[in-house]
Write a structure and sequence with these properties.
Elements (H helix, E strand, L loop, with lengths): L19 E6 L5 E8 L4 E8 L4 E4 L6 E7 L5 E7 L7 E6 L6 E2 L6 E5 L5 E8 L2 E8 L6 E3 L5 E7 L4 E6 L6 E6 L6 E2 L8 E5 L5 E6 L10 E6 L6 E2 L15
Antiparallel strand pairs: 1-2, 2-3, 3-4, 5-6, 6-7, 7-8, 9-10, 10-11, 11-12, 13-14, 14-15, 15-16, 17-18, 18-19, 19-20
Length: 252
């Protein structure tokens, strides 16, 4: 974790031989959910780390390879991506905060889910013909529809309290951050050109975007965490490490 001004950088997990990734802060800021490889199930499971107690609770067990957990705005439900028997068909699922009540949202290929501000819908990436695009579906599986049209979208996205969507698109080493209305209209690039910018996340007030970029070291391990205003101004670098810092998720 790191504060929004770059101070307070600290490590949360301690197992050097286990990959921990796709971290996401709870709406109350008291815990972090993430995916990590389980030596027992030989798959990636979803865990929750209580920040105050520094304790970890496994939420899933042998339900497939699971990643990209995201907690609903009211704190009751987790959306996540599941890979099961077909590695080419990820699906989006929901579960209660304690790991019970598992249910699939939609049968289409779907990954990298994010919640709508009111918790009624899920934003995710899926295939649309020969390209990857963003889609929205109601939590009960109805109302599936595409939003936006990008030439080379990857998947990671976020949905702000101002009802704006942020995502990234572009060919390898040429990716940029885009913002648009939740109906797909008015999309525009907001990242400064040339940073290979990706993995965006809105601040709780919707005025800033945190993301991964390579503005200062344009090489494989050169990615750092940056923030900028939603209009693309006031670019600030938060991290400075020899390893790659990536896929930030902003918390309260």
């Amino acid at each position: 974790m790191v504060n929004a001004d770059g101070s307070g950088y600290r490590r949360l997990t301690t197992e050097d031989d286990v990959r921990h990734y796709y971290s996401s802060l709870a709406p109350d800021g008291q815990s972090v959910v993430y995916s990590a490889y389980s030596k027992e199930t030989k798959r990636h499971e979803i865990y929750e780390l209580n920040l105050a107690a520094n304790s970890v609770n496994a939420l899933t067990s042998a339900f497939g390879d699971l990643n990209a957990p995201d907690i609903s705005p009211d704190g009751t439900t987790i959306a996540f991506t599941r890979f099961d028997t077909d590695p080419d068909k990820p699906t989006t699922w929901l579960m209660a905060r304690d790991g019970t009540d598992l249910r699939q949202v939609t049968d289409v290929r779907a990954w990298d889910p994010s919640w709508s501000p009111d918790g009624s819908s899920i934003l995710f990436a899926s295939y649309a013909g020969d390209t990857t695009q963003l889609f929205i579906v109601n939590v009960d599986g109805t109302g599936l529809h595409q939003v936006g049209n990008f030439p080379a979208l990857r998947g990671r996205n976020d949905w702000s309290s101002q009802n704006l969507i942020v995502t990234y698109s572009g060919e390898r080493w040429e990716r940029e951050i885009y913002i648009m209305n939740s109906d797909g209209s008015g999309h525009q690039q907001i990242s400064p050109v040339g940073g290979n910018s990706q993995g965006p996340s809105f601040s709780p007030d919707g005025q800033w975007v945190a993301f991964t970029a390579y503005f200062d070291r344009y090489e494989v391990h050169g990615c750092e965490i940056y923030i900028m205003r939603v209009d693309g101004t006031d670019l600030r670098r938060l991290t400075d490490n020899e390893y790659c810092d990536y896929q930030p998720r902003w918390g309260p």
